Amino acid sequence: MRAETHKVARLHAILWGMFSLGGMIAAFLLPVLIYMTAIAYPFSLWPFNGTRDPSFLVTGHLLGALFIFVTVAGSLYHGIFRFQSALTEVGLLKYRRALEAVGYFIIFAGIILLAYYLGTWYLNGTIR
Prior knowledge:
Layout: H1 2-40, H2 56-59, H3 62-89, H4 96-124
Helix pairs in contact: 1-3, 3-4
């Protein structure tokens, strides 16, 4: 029984560590992504000659795709984990296991879809 409790505690610590990493990614990288795609490009604040689509600066190379993957996947994990914790605190504690299952499914499906989307961009030659 003691070894099983230790394994659960270790998994719990790893998941909370991923949660805090996702929060840090959301706090630092998401504003940069929002600035680049919603403010800098439309208002011509980014030095860009206009011969290509402005999103090429973010998605035109593999490092930009990695930036998008880390930002969106980290923010998704952090957001879903926080939302699931908030739902259990407002009175849905008896549905905690179901909320965890749904939350982890959404995280897993979102990361797989994001990887698929970026992978098709890479295979089509959009990302070099």
